[in-house]
Design brief:
Helices cover 33% and strands 44% of the residues. The chain has 4 helices and 8 strands, in the order E-H-E-E-H-E-E-H-E-E-H-E. The protein is elongated.
Length: 165
């Protein structure tokens, strides 16, 4: 799991290494560090750290070590890697069909975002739709592929899968 934290450290030599040590000591992997030494507030400096950890137990051990070392955790957020899938849909697609497609994908667990862009002609009911979906699990893309394939066969529209993921 990847985590991003904002820390506040005492503005004295050695504090940055004291803040980073608990991550490596608990088998964490540091991905990035932004050390803003120019901004000192209340005798403390801000440091942003992104790291990966195995489980909640290791994360708890890191936080415990920080408390013991006087490191203040100001903000923490979990970072999820997402996988993008893109589709081109073309055909006679009423708004109700587009709504059903997006609602079907939206109901799937692990879907982060759905972006739907379409163009239409005023002289026909045909639409061209660009559908972009971001998911947390790469395997979820296969589920969306199958769902859209089934919908394209039942609703008689052309489905073209993008080359990503």
């Amino acid at each position: 799991m990847r985590v991003n934290v904002d820390l506040r450290l005492k503005d004295v030599p050695g504090q940055l290494i004291r803040a980073l040590e608990p991550i490596s000591m608990n088998e964490g992997n540091i991905v990035g560090v932004v050390h803003n030494h120019d901004l000192v507030t209340g005798g403390r400096i801000s440091v942003n750290v992104t790291f990966e950890h195995k489980d909640q137990k290791t994360l708890d051990a890191i936080f415990s070590a920080w408390r013991e070392r006087g490191v203040e955790v100001v903000k923490m957020g979990e970072i999820f890697r997402t996988f993008a899938a893109e589709y081109l849909i073309a055909g006679d697609l009423p708004h109700s069909a587009l709504r059903k497609i997006t609602e079907g994908i939206e109901s799937m667990e692990g879907v982060e975002t759905i972006d739907l862009q379409y163009s239409l002609s005023t002289s026909t009911s045909n639409k061209t739709v660009l559908l972009l979906v971001n998911v947390r699990n790469k395997a979820k893309v296969n589920e969306i592929d199958e769902y859209l394939k089934t919908r394209s066969e039942s609703d008689d529209f052309l489905l073209i899968r993008g080359t990503g993921v």
